[in-house]
Amino acid sequence: MKSWRRLFDARLPRAVQTLQLGGLFNAFGNGVVLPFTLIYLHNVRGISLTAAGLVLATNAVVALVSGPFSGPLVDRLGGRRVLALALLLLAAGFGSYMLVHRPWQAFAAAVVTGVGNGFFWPAQSTLIAGLTPHDRRHVAFAMQRVVMNLGIGLGALAGGLIASAEHPWTFTVLFAVDALTFLAYLAILYAFVPAPDLGRPPDSERAGSYRDVLRNRAFLLVISLNSLFILAGFSGFELLPVYAKNEAGVSESAIGVVFFVNTAVIVLTQLPISRASEGRRRMAVLGLLGVTWAASWLLVPVAGIWLQGAAAAVLLAAAMALFAIGECLHGAVQAPLVAELAEPRLYGRYMALSALSWSVGFALGPAVGAPVLDAWPTAVWIGAAALCLTGSACALLLEQALPRDARRTPVSVAA
Question: pTM value?
Answer without folding.
Answer: 0.75
